[in-house]
Amino acid sequence: MDDNFLKAVVYAKNELKGFYDRGGSFSALNQKGRSEILEVFSEDFDWRSSLKNAAADYSSFDSLKRHCAHLIRAEKQMPEELKHWIADVLEGIEPTLNPPRGGVATGLENNMLIPRLVEKVAVFFQLDRTRNDTSDPVSACDAVQQAIVQTPEAADINSLQYRTIKKAYMDAKVRGIFVNN
């Protein structure tokens, strides 16, 4: 492996370590992505409708719970009905619903940590972003994959294989995340 690729791996490791040193969490980013999917950060969020259905519908329950968390974190005024509802959930008075069988959209598709890191490594170190299966493993995706494996703090990232990192990057590219690329 050439020196430039090894420098790219070290750079990616430092970026990951910095993310975790600042209190970041890959799973927390996924949860933020789930909240974005449910649009709970929107000023137009229809909390009344969710409140009405929260006892029986997981999506309504989850949306309302996340909306309350957003209002608390943002130190925004929370309507009295929501204050009482979230307090009742915390005390076990209101039911806590479980996700449906088969799960729900997790927010992973909105988590751009890995694709953005691949793009930064490609640009800074002039590496190809991806490669085909027969090429030498010296692409930006390869550098990020090695960095993830070598960074103990990154254990919560499930993208430990080149293929999953490449897929995350290609999905982000198709969604138009990267400009001029």
How many DSSP-defined strands?
A: 0
Intertermini distance? 26 Å
| Shape category | elongated
Q: What Rg do the Cα atoms give?
A: 20 Å
Following the backbone from N to C, one meets helices and strands in this order, namely HHHHHHHH
Count every helix, treating DSSP H or I runs of 4 or more residues as helices.
Answer: 8
Q: Give the DSSP E fraction (strand runs of 2 or more residues).
A: under 5%
- Total domain count: 2
Task: Determine the structural class based on helices, strands and strand pairing.
Answer: mainly alpha
Please characterize this protein's 3D structure:
This protein has 181 residues and is mainly alpha-helical. It has 2 domains: 3-26 and 108-174, no CATH class; 32-91, no CATH class. It has 8 helices and no strands. The longest helix has 19 residues, at 3-21. The model has no long low-confidence stretch (mean pLDDT 87).
SSE map:
Layout: H1 3-21, H2 26-37, H3 47-53, H4 58-73, H5 80-91, H6 113-125, H7 140-150, H8 162-174
Helix pairs in contact: 1-6, 1-7, 3-4, 6-7, 6-8, 7-8
Question: What's a concise summary of this model?
Answer:
This protein is mainly alpha-helical. It has helices spanning 3-21, 26-37, 47-53, 58-73, 80-91, 113-125, 140-150, 162-174. 57% of the residues lie in helices and 0% in strands.
